[in-house]
Amino acid sequence: MNSNPMLGVLLHWLGGLAAGSFYLGYRGVKNWAWETYWLAGGFFSWIIVPWLLALTMTRDLLAVLGETPSTTLFWAYAFGVLWGTGGLTFGLTMRYLGLSLGMAVALGYTAAFGTLLPPIFRGEFASKVLGTHSGLIVLTGVLICLLGIAFAGAAGVSKEREMSEEQKRSAIEEFSLKRGLLVATFSGVMSACFAYGLAAGDPIKEITLRHGTPILWQGLPVLVVVLAGGFTTNFVWCAMLNIRNRTGYQYLSSEVRGPIPDRRSEPILETVTDAPAEEMAVAVAPPAAQSTRAPMLSNYLFCALAGTTWYFQFFFYTMGETQMGTFKFSSWTLHMASIIIFSTLWGIALKEWKGVGTRTKVLVGFSLLVLIASTVVVGYGNYVAAQFK
């Protein structure tokens, strides 16, 4: 199948829409602690939906995984685990740098490392990227994306400057630039490990294609392995919180035992790619319900909705990657840009930026334009490569 970069960009935009929207489903969950509804939704994100779609849309999934070299399975799984650990330090990034600056720095690292390191490790960066006209166009698009992230961070910093001194102290009580940059570097690089896991899983794609899987779905078996690694990290963390907060009973009992922890103060485990949607959703979260029982059926349904929507970001990602031709590594840039675009649009729709000054509004608008431009440039670079292939 010939590549179609414009279709690839559209698919990545759909993935970004899913990533920027999934957390809204969790807003319907009542009287559950964060660790409970995150893990309940996570079963759908990392286990149920990946296996269900891979089993139904690819050929001989179990046989394919059985034929996959153990080293390939190990690295795809291990990078999934490392991707999950990026979230352990993301909260510290926010604590030391503040939400806006911390988000911009961590996202910048994730976009840069997740995009550029895979072709460098493959030994393709000099020949295919720097050594070709189309490769230079794609690289320009990546740099434009990083510029857009910088503008998004500047908009957040501008918004923070408009806050009162009391609000500032509350938001960044432990501000430390040096410590924050070190933590943000670790968090950003670890969060980029998802891209490394997908690259490590390339042999799985080759095997599933030999079994007759359509090209468009070749990435689904890889997601099964990488997301199993992410599930491991999230399961361990959420189980620890369930034990510490004595909230494990919530999975089976509707009775509310004691106060439900405030979502704004929870030690949330996320990767950089989850964070924009979560912060936007928490900002507009409804007051905690004052009921003595939790609506079990609706809670699980909302968790299933949120978890399935989360998975679809990478469902569309793997589809889009098949359309990017020579420069499939640029898919990560398209994914990151799309997440920020749609998260920002949701924030605008839900009045997150209401009441900010003109300068902040201009920076928000400019960041959106620059990020959209980056996806167009990356798409065009892939189109040029496809035309002269």
Instruction: Give the domain tally.
Output: 1
- Record field, number of beta strands: 0
Q: How many individual helices? A: 17
Q: What is the C-alpha radius of gyration, as a whole number of Å?
A: 21 Å
Strand content: under 5%
Note the quaternary state here: single chain
Shape descriptor reads: globular
Classify the secondary structure makeup into a structural class.
mainly alpha
Query: End-to-end span in angstroms?
Result: 13 Å
Low-confidence stretches: none
On the 0-100 scale, what is the average pLDDT? 81
- Kindly state the percentage of residues in helix: over 70%
Instruction: Give the SSE order as H and E letters.
Output: HHHHHHHHHHHHHHHHH
Q: Main beta sheet, described?
A: none
Question: What do you see in this structure?
Answer:
The chain is mostly helical and 389 residues long. The chain has one domain (5-387). Helices cover 72% and strands 0% of the residues. It contains 17 helices and no strands. It has helices spanning 5-21, 34-57, 61-67, 70-85, 90-97, 99-121, 125-130, 133-161, 165-171, 177-191, 193-200, 202-210, 220-245, 275-283, 296-321, 331-349, 358-387. Helix 2 (34-57) crosses helix 15. The longest helix is centred in the last third of the chain and has 30 residues, at 358-387. It is globular. The model has no long low-confidence stretch (mean pLDDT 81).
